[in-house]
Amino acid sequence: MKAEENHGNTKKFGMVIDLDVCTGCGSCMVACMAENNVPFRKDESDKLKSITWMRVYKLSNGKPYPETDICYLPRPCQHCEGHEGHSPCVSVCPATATDYDMQTGIVSQIYTRCFGCRYCMAACPYHARYFNWYDPVWPKGMEKYLNPDVSVRMRGVVEKCSFCIQRYQAAKNRAFMEGKADIEEGDYQTACTQACPAGAITFGDLNNPAHAVYKLKKQPNAFRLLERLGTNPKIYYLSSREWVRRAGDNYLKNEGPAKIG
Amino acid sequence: MSNSDDRTQTVSGKAAEASSTDKPDGSSRGIIVLCFCIGLVVSLVFGWVVFPKLLYSRKQQPIDFNHNLHAGLVSNGCESCHFLRDDGTYSGTPKLAQCIDCHQDVQGNSPEEAKFVEQYVKKGIEVPWLVYARQPDCVFFSHAAHVKAAKMDCVTCHGDIGDSEHLKVYEQNRISGYSRDVEGASLIGFKKHTWDRMKMDDCSECHQKQKAVMGSVQTQKEGCFVCHK
């Protein structure tokens, strides 16, 4: 397949999140909301209606004290490659509103093209997609804080994490001005990566041996969420605790965590 | 039996009567054809002449800027005023601070310049220029990528506005709010030059010609996030 060959020598942006380091502070969620103009409402208690591109989940091993242990798991869009770029959401979108880019490995969402059928939300096994039930209403004066590089969404469309694509576009712009052929690792980092005070999130090109994620994803403690579904996600998690690695999928008692691949 | 027979007779009789009155003679057929033709012409004229005029509001720029005159005075062509910042973002229409370098006081004898100095420079108000090429909010357009990396010239997309002595009328679609220069002057989509229209298909047309590798899985063209944000 031609497309697969292309992906070999192009970029494949991804993330490695160290769950042993994550403290669950939620800085990544806040940074993401601010960077991407994510709308919020006065009453955010109904989580079925709230939008969080990046969301921190709390996992527990379910054991009584003193063996009790918890783990916080940040979950952005997993940017599944699937098989030849056919990620679950891209396969079902009837409007070509969401697409997989073989040049960057990023699953795009074009809000003006989306008509809100929500097939993609049903297809996404990670609940990474959110529907705008309301038009965004910003508290008075807050429009001035909106990021001009990210378009604001309207009621009736689906949105999700874009790996801060506007930062990639800006990085490319700077490279053009400096006459550089390519961007470097530090030129393009997502908002959550930079906001994490513990340094739990590492972002970069999974295909580039010079990037930190290239080595981190190959660690023995690395796993991906719902590995056995074949979604081939680009978010890798690290944890030294076996129960956390087992929590990444619905394993039976006699099964061990699946290998990446 | 006889009753029903009578009824059928009367019914058929009526039908015959009706058909004889419905049948148009020569003159009434002519009127129908004439009415149809008039109706057709009226709707065509409305559709092609009246409606486009109603659809677009015509606005004059606040100052009738002379591009031709300025282009002869500056050293670096279009980029003298419409420059790229160091980080690759595009400065767009010049701000007052740039114009003030020369226009602190009236230089020549053009009434437009006098108006500009009086109404904007002296009061320190930015000129509310109407931007012909303003794209929708969801579009990411990089001037750096096109001008610096691809070495394209301004004319390819913007036409010969640099040689114009007067600014043309800004036509804005009353429904969409976009400029007619973006949507294209021709309603049937007829396009003579590359700068006649700035819609997605026009971008895509050129991108498909230039790029060897197409990233999109769905469309086999370039990825959506190349030009969208």
Largest interface: A-B, 37 and 28 residues
Beta-strand residue percentage of chain A: 5-15%
Tally of helical runs of chain B? 9
Q: In terms of per-residue confidence, which ranges of chain A show pLDDT below 50 for 5 or more consecutive residues?
A: 1-6
> Which percent band covers the strand fraction of chain B?
under 5%
> What strand line-up does the widest sheet of chain A have?
8-1-10-9
Structural class of chain B: mainly alpha
Sheet with most strands of chain A: 4 strands, mixed
The CATH topology of chain A is Alpha-Beta Plaits
* Share of helical residues of chain A: 10-25%
Rg of chain B, rounded, reads 30 Å
Q: Care to count the β-strands of chain B?
A: 2
Structural overview:
The complex is a heterodimer of chains A (261) and B (229). Chain A has 261 residues and is α+β, with helices and mostly antiparallel strands. Chain A has a single domain, classed as 2-Layer Sandwich (Alpha-Beta Plaits), CATH 3.30.70. Helices cover 21% and strands 15% of the residues of chain A. Chain A has helices at residues 2-8, 27-35, 88-92, 119-123, 165-178, 191-195, 212-216, 242-246; strands at 13-18, 55-60, 70-75, 98-100, 107-109, 130-131, 158-159, 201-205, 222-223, 235-238. In chain A, the strands form four sheets. Chain A has a four-stranded mixed beta sheet with strand order 8-1-10-9. In chain A, strands 2-3 form a two-stranded antiparallel ribbon. Chain A is globular, with a radius of gyration of 18 Å. The two termini of chain A are 19 Å apart. The model of chain A is unreliable at 1-6 (pLDDT under 50). Chain B is mainly alpha-helical and 229 residues long. Among the domains of chain B are: 2-58, no CATH class; 132-226, no CATH class. Helices cover 45% and strands 3% of the residues of chain B. Chain B is built from nine helices and two strands; from the N terminus they run ααβαααααβαα. A two-stranded antiparallel ribbon of chain B has the order 1-2. The longest helix of chain B has 30 residues, at 26-55. Chain B is flat. The mean pLDDT of chain B is 86. The chains are: A alpha+beta (261), B mainly alpha (229). At the A-B interface, helix 5 of A face helix 6 of B.
